[in-house]
Design brief:
Helices cover 44% and strands 18% of the residues. It is of the alpha/beta class. The chain has a single domain, classed as Rossmann fold, CATH 3.40.50.2300. Strand 1, helix 1 and strand 2 form a beta-alpha-beta unit. Helix 2 packs parallel to helix 3 and helix 3 runs parallel beside helix 4. The radius of gyration is 13 Å and the shape is globular.
Length: 127
C-alpha cells in the first residue's frame, strides 16, 4: 500500500486530502509544517508528498528545496497542493523539482490522478 504524506498547516485541508486518498487505498501520514514534514520523511519514507506552499515557519518551497538537496529524498515525488497559483510560485516549484502542481480548490479527481501518475512514474505498486 503506497504511503502519502500530506503537509498543510490547515487541519481541515489535511483531513480532506487524507479522506480522498484513503478511499484510493493509500496509507496517509500528516504534517502541519515543513520541519515536521522533513522529520516524517526521514523516518517513514513516504512514496509521495503533497505539500502546501504557504505555511508558518518553513514554507513549502523551502521544504521542497531541502528535500531535493538531500540524496535520500531527491527523487521523492512532490506535488504542490496550494492556493498559491501564481506563475512565480509555479515556476519556482518546477525549478526546484516538483512533480506536479494542484491549486486549491482542486477539481474532483484531480488530486487522485496526480498521485496515481506520480506513483506510476516512480514505479510504486498500488494496493
Amino acid at each position: 500500500m503506497p504511503t502519502i504524506l500530506v503537509v498543510d498547516d490547515h487541519e481541515e485541508i489535511r483531513e480532506a486530502l487524507a479522506e480522498i486518498l484513503e478511499e484510493e487505498g493509500h496509507e496517509i501520514l500528516q504534517a502541519a509544517d515543513g520541519l515536521l514534514a522533513l522529520e516524517v520523511i526521514a523516518s517513514s519514507k513516504p512514496d509521495v508528498v503533497l505539500l502546501d506552499i504557504a505555511m508558518p515557519g518553513m514554507d513549502g518551497l523551502e521544504t521542497l528545496r531541502r528535500l531535493k538537496d538531500q540524496p535520500e529524498s531527491s527523487s521523492l515525488p512532490v506535488i504542490m497542493v496550494t492556493a498559491q497559483g501564481d506563475r512565480q510560485n509555479m515556476v519556482k516549484a518546477v525549478q526546484l523539482g516538483v512533480r506536479d502542481y494542484v491549486t486549491k480548490p482542486w477539481e474532483p479527481g484531480e488530486v487522485e490522478m496526480c498521485v496515481n501518475w506520480a506513483l506510476k512514474a516512480a514505479n510504486v505498486a498500488a494496493a
